[in-house]
Amino acid sequence: MFAVIGYGNALRRDDGAGLVLAQQMSDFLKQNDCDVLYLTTHQLTPELIYDLNAPKLEGVLFVDTRVGVVETAVAIEPVMREIHHPSVGHQMTPEIFLILLDGILGVKVKAWMVSVPGWDFEFGEVFSKKTQQALDDFLQHLGKHLSFCLMKKSVDHVA
Description:
159 residues; Rossmann fold; 5-stranded mixed beta sheet; 35% helix
């Protein structure tokens, strides 16, 4: 099973793009016979780890919007269980989330950060043109982007 956690604020224009992409990714994986736990939230919080205490959890996909500067494409990067620059802030990072998941529940899984570039975080529900284009481009090739999830499923079925 894969957990897809989308977070952001749907009322702050591009900040809601991660939520939309998480829903699309979850739907795609389900249509391809993958077990999916789909969660949405405004931000990562420690209590969310208890939703991931599942025996068949194979991986977590964190989906959020990042401030777009130069890179205009959706990015997928592995999340490591290490902190290089610890800070005491109001936001929990995927790295800290994984450390808590392992430390409190003993759950060790692979994880990826899927980030959508965003430029407009004012109040509203419509994405900027650049963010919408990044989503459209990513969704056109969703199967390729999520092949690591689908390959795991096919290996399980062969065994």
